[in-house]
Write a structure and sequence with these properties.
Elements lengths: L1 H22 L6 H28 L3 E6 L2 H4 L1 H16 L3 E6 L2 H11 L5 E2 L2 E2 L3 H25 L4 E5 L6 E5 L12 E6 L1 H9 L3 E5 L1 E3 L8 E3 L2 H12 L3 E6 L14 E3 H9 L7 H13 L5 E5 L5 H7 L12 E5 L1
Parallel strand pairs: 1-2, 1-11, 2-8, 5-8, 11-13, 12-14
Antiparallel strand pairs: 3-4, 6-7, 9-10, 13-14
Length: 330
């Protein structure tokens, strides 16, 4: 609805602008007449690009990992939910998987539960998982789904424990450190997600998983990036987007690398262009495309309307606007 209103208003503005320019043309300078034509041409180009992208992705599924500054800034939060609603109204199926680290940290401090990280992963005792589940599956999850609906979309909030959506086993740290109840996703209940998507509903998933068999009542804390990548792969999604607080993958001169293959990423890790905390981020992206996702975006979530810009800004090839991150393909 919001996107349709925007598109209608832009068309009306463009038509009025061109009409007014023609009416007063005898009294205007050639420069002003040229500027009016530029505005009209620019709008037409943008509209055609959006139409091509929407036609290509109509009926396809995209998965979005939503986190970072895009979740903590009220303005960016509103824009994200507007973007989801707009994509739905264009016939694109959207799954949102969200994080909530800052909100979990605040609640852990409030209730006096200690927490620490090992290798970028939160060590998750049963007490930590209980707090994480309360925060993620409660206030955070319901706020996102509610805001998408308020923006004109349809959304339902889910926990990874609902109908065994994310079935997990205990994740073993490569360094032998016990991470507690951190889950490795083994199975995704794709039927639940497909049924909701078929009804035109966006599943909003909080990454708290459930155990398997005799551990079916055990709750596991799952990394949101891992959950999003696995869900995208199991759904054979057209796109997966990881909204982050970084510009994308940078070269050694700190210039954005707009497009990379899996082999490119392997080479960049080997020559230490990609190091530290960026390695897990690109690993989630490469895992997703290796599972069958057509394109994985490491997207700068600090950019206003980052989601809709990257999904629709690339036109029919769908490989992003080129302005807000890095696209990873096979």
């Amino acid at each position: 609805m919001q996107f349709s209103l925007w598109l209608s208003s832009m068309l009306l503005f463009s038509a009025n602008f061109v009409f007014a320019s023609a009416f007063v043309a005898p009294f205007r300078t050639p420069f002003l007449r040229f500027s009016a034509l530029q505005v009209a041409d620019s709008f037409a180009d943008s509209a055609l690009t959006i139409a091509d992208a929407a036609a290509t992705l109509r009926g396809e599924t995209i998965v979005v990992k939503y986190g970072g500054n895009a979740m903590t800034s009220q303005d960016l939060k509103d824009m994200f939910c507007q973007d989801v609603a707009a994509l739905q109204n264009l016939g694109i199926r959207v799954v949102v998987v969200h994080g909530g680290g800052p909100q979990i940290n605040a609640m852990l401090e409030k209730v006096g539960v200690e927490s620490r990280f090992e290798g970028g992963m939160r060590v998750s005792s049963p007490e930590v998982v209980e707090v994480a589940e309360m925060v993620l599956c409660g206030s955070v999850n319901k706020e996102i789904s509610s805001k998408i609906c308020s923006a004109g979309g349809q959304a339902i909030g889910l926990s990874g424990r609902d109908n065994s959506l994310l079935q997990c086993t205990k994740q073993i740290n490569k360094d032998g450190i016990d991470l507690g109840n951190v889950g490795a996703v083994k199975t995704v209940n794709t039927k639940l997600l497909q049924d909701l998507l078929d009804m035109g509903i966006c599943p909003v998933v909080s990454p708290i998983g459930t155990g398997i068999d005799e551990e079916c009542d055990v709750a596991y804390n799952v990394n949101a990036d891992v959950a999003a990548g696995r869900i995208a792969g199991e759904l054979k999604a057209a796109r997966v987007l990881f909204l982050t607080d970084i510009a994308g993958v940078l070269d050694k001169e700190m210039q954005l690398l707009k497009s990379l293959s899996v082999k490119d990423i392997e080479d960049l890790i080997e020559d230490e262009t990609i190091t530290g905390g960026m390695i897990p981020k690109v690993s989630y992206a490469t895992s997703a495309v290796q599972l069958g996702v057509k394109g994985a975006f490491i997207t700068d979530g600090r950019v206003p309307h980052a989601l809709i810009k990257e999904v629709l800004g690339g036109g029919s090839d769908g490989m992003g606007s080129g302005d807000g991150g890095t696209v990873v393909t096979l």
